[in-house]
Amino acid sequence: MQQQTLVLIQCADEVGLVARISNVLAQQKLNIVTMREYVDEANNKFFVRVVCSGIPEHADILQQELTKTLPYNASVKINPANRKKIVLLVTKEHHCLADILVRNYFDTLHADVLAVIGNYESLGTFTEKFEIPFHYVSHEEKSKSDFEHEISDLLTHYDADFIILAKFMRILSPEFVGKFKDKVINIHHSFLPAFIGANPYRQAQNRGVKIIGATAHFVTNDLDEGPIIVQRTKSIHHGYDLTEMVTAGKEIEKAVLSHALKLLTEDRVMLNGNKTVIFE
Predict the structure, then answer these.
(1) What is the rounded distance in angstroms from the CA atom of residue 12 to the CA atom of residue 74?
(2) In whole angstroms, what separates CA 59 from the centre of its chain?
(3) What are the E-state strand segments in 119-210?
(4) How far is CA 236 from the centre of its chain?
(5) What is the pLDDT of residue 99?
(6) So what's the pLDDT on residue 191?
(7) What are phi and psi of 44, to 5 degrees?
(8) Distance CA 72, CA 248 (A)
(9) Which of 75, 217, 267, 272 keeps 20 to 30 A from 9, CA to CA?
């Protein structure tokens, strides 16, 4: 298969950007295979994801030429790492962890899971069956700051591209989120904020909901309100008991998180304030 070049650009919108970008790529003897662009007219922002056949002889020259032709302060990324490094944070629920580790084992994740960090030991034995390091960091009898500092040290060591909260049931501080800005991804049931707190599925059943779902999103300082990557829902009816609702919810969570990881590992997600631009 012929090698390809991936170019990701974010900048202020101007007339003629597509033509200017295409011209620079042609000058570098790169043929455009796909080009997906989006303009946020309200905020005058331009986003584009370009895949070209071939690779530039000098990537630094391509970077310079694109930067020169684009508006001031443009973000230009050429061939970001095609295998992302991932670390998972877990508590006790295993369904999202198990799904990711199986995908990682069969190399369908197109990323590398470097480690799993848990604030309980219960998922350690399972994780190690896949020959993935498991680090137990208890939150008990220590301050939130000390707990997060221990996790932060491990994450810094692994230098992960993305930190996945695979049902990690601890609220992270603004300091922690800021240190790993735009790297922390969470999965939660879509009942929030309507059914916040303990036993959301029981709350939902008591209210007779007709749709359940899940949301994968970037983590920000606003609890469960970061930029959304993927959402999915499933229709249910009055015949679902609590166990069936929980099972259906977990299946959706796995599907949504795996889809979000695919988009992230293929560099199809761009942040636009508190929203995302997704080039599927």
Answers:
(1) 7
(2) 27
(3) 134-136, 162-165, 184-189
(4) 27
(5) 98
(6) 66
(7) 55, 50
(8) 48
(9) 217
Q: Yes or no: say if 100 and 261 are a contact pair by the CB < 8 Å rule.
A: yes
Residue with tokens 């469960």: 224
The letter for the amino acid at 80 is: P
> Which residues are catalytic, by number?
224
**Spatial distance between the Cα atoms of 263 and 279, rounded to a whole number of angstroms:** 8
Residue 192 has pLDDT above 70, yes or no: no
pLDDT at residue 224 tops 90: no
Phi, psi of 87 (to 5 degrees): -125, 135
Phi, psi of 14 (to 5 degrees): -145, 160
Model confidence pLDDT, tens digit, residues 148-181: 999 999 999 999 999 999 999 999 999 999 999 9
Strands 75-78 and 184-189 turn out to be: unpaired
Tell me the mean pLDDT in the region 60-79: 97
Other CB atoms within 10 Å distance of the CB of residue 141:
7
pLDDT on residue 42: 97
